[in-house]
From TrEMBL:
It comes from the Bacteria. Pfam families: TauE. This is Probable membrane transporter protein. It comes from Zhihengliuella salsuginis. InterPro entries: TM_pro_TauE-like, TSUP. Keywords: Cell membrane, Membrane, Transmembrane, Transmembrane helix, Transport. Belongs to the 4-toluene sulfonate uptake permease (TSUP) (TC 2.A.102) family. It is found in: Cell membrane. Coiled coil: none annotated.
Length: 247
């Protein structure tokens, strides 16, 4: 039985608020939720509690952006994501928390460097192509792997969707449908690995109202944020999340 003090509940509450906000406004902020939950709950069990809240946020994001989805981009990701989730489940069962965090942090920093290089090349020449089908498989595999082991697939998918040059709402709608399906698929793995039991579920349910509040706040911001500001914010939040995982 996990006993939480007032500060612990405050941290989890802020993490839940941020989880809802990340789903409807800035996906890169999701990695910060991972850090907040892991600071209060046992690291592995924290992924189970956060998964419940992420699914709630997914429901609101899917509803809010139901008409803003790039289905072609989603179809391209499916094979890689399935493979990555299987590999991630095996890795999660065999690795320690520290190893998991550092591996994901290193992956994110490498992808961030690649994304910044792409942006620089695109600024030099408008002819820089969008990612190929093979790149979609690669990002999908990494996204499936990182979301399975630490609920940290948001930054990976954010970098991929940025490279596809999607408008803000199409970006958020595509990400919403992607993570709704992926997070539902993760539930059996989390339960089977013992990371989501009745006690952890009860903690998560008590935080659901804050996720809802964060989702509506994010929707309000998303309709007002300029495209360039949005892209820079996603990159900065991804970098912060990667560094946090490494240290």
């Amino acid at each position: 039985m996990i006993e939480l003090d007032v500060l612990g509940w405050v941290v989890l509450g802020f993490g839940a608020l941020l989880a809802g906000f990340a789903k409807t406004a800035l996906p890169g902020a999701g990695t910060l939720c991972v850090a907040l939950f892991a600071a209060v709950l046992p690291a592995r069990e924290s992924t189970g509690a956060l998964l419940v809240l992420l699914i709630v946020g997914d429901l609101f994001a899917v509803w809010m952006y139901r008409n803003d989805v790039d289905w072609r981009t989603l179809r391209r990701l499916v094979p890689g994501v399935l493979a990555g989730m299987v590999v991630g489940a095996v890795f999660l069962g065999a690795s320690t928390d520290d190893v998991v965090r550092r591996v994901i942090g290193a992956i994110l920093l490498a992808l961030l460097g690649f994304a910044l290089w792409q942006r620089r090349e695109r600024a030099r020449a408008d002819a820089v192509p969008s990612p190929s089908r093979a790149a979609g498989y690669g990002y999908g595999t990494l996204g499936g792997f990182t979301t399975m082991v630490a609920n940290a697939g948001g930054p990976v998918m954010s970098l991929y969707l940025l490279s596809m040059r999607l408008p803000v709402k199409a970006f958020l709608g595509t990400a919403a449908y992607f993570f709704f399906v992926v997070n539902l698929a993760k539930l059996p793995f989390q339960i089977g690995l013992g990371l989501l039991d009745a006690h952890i579920f009860a903690i998560a349910v008590s935080l659901v109202p804050l996720v809802v509040a964060g989702a509506f706040a994010g929707r309000w911001l998303a309709s007002r944020i300029p495209q360039k500001v949005f892209e820079v914010a996603v990159l900065v939040l991804t970098a912060l999340g990667a560094v946090n995982l490494l240290i």
